[in-house]
Amino acid sequence: MVVTMFSQLSLDLLLSDDSPTPDTSPDAAFGHAADVLSGKWTTLIIRALLEGTKRYSQLQSTLVGISPKILTARLRMLEAEGVITRKVYATVPPKTEYRLTELGRELEVVIDAMMQFGVQFAETRTGQSH
Fold first, then answer.
1. What is the DSSP string of 101-127?
2. CB of 37 within 8 A of CB of 109?
3. 79, 83, 71: which is closest to 39 by C-alpha?
4. CA dist 101 to 1, 13, 49, 68, 86, Å?
5. Residue 94 in 3-state DSSP?
6. Where are the domains of the chain?
7. Are 37 and 43 in contact (CB under 8 A)?
């Protein structure tokens, strides 16, 4: 069921290299997704990039409270996982832009579901109904 959150295109992208076939059982698939989405800031970075390409400084100002060390680490991890791409321009000062890959855009449905859950959860906690 969890695997169906990602389109066939996403699965093809994940399986396109010559590495061994990954375990796509429901438990393993959920674990893979949880590994990519782990940490408070990771989902917020993805949400920000769903709006479009952002420079490092734009991400930092959007994500109030994130340290430069954490932002850099999360961006590197997301790039290594194939969720985002980084483009560096040879300018002075250097300009770096980040954007979601096709695989990263597949996370929009997950981020939307998390936001909907957050609204419902907040309403439940305050005694309001949806």
1. -HHHHTTHHHHHHHHHHHHHHHHHHTT
2. no
3. 71
4. 23, 10, 10, 23, 10
5. coil
6. 2-125
7. yes
CB atoms within 10 A of CB 46: 23
Q: In this prediction, what percent of the chain has a pLDDT beyond 90?
A: 62
* 3-state class (DSSP) for residue 96: strand
pTM tops 0.90, yes or no: no
CATH architecture of the domain with range 2-125: Orthogonal Bundle (1.10)
Which two tokens mark 38? 């782990």
The predicted-structure confidence for 47-100, as pLDDT tens digits, reads as follows 999 999 999 999 999 999 999 999 999 999 999 999 999 999 999 988 999 999
pLDDT-derived band at 31 (thresholds 50, 70, 90) equals confident
Q: Name the residue with tokens 């695989």.
A: 103
Does the structure show a pLDDT above 80 at 17?
A: no
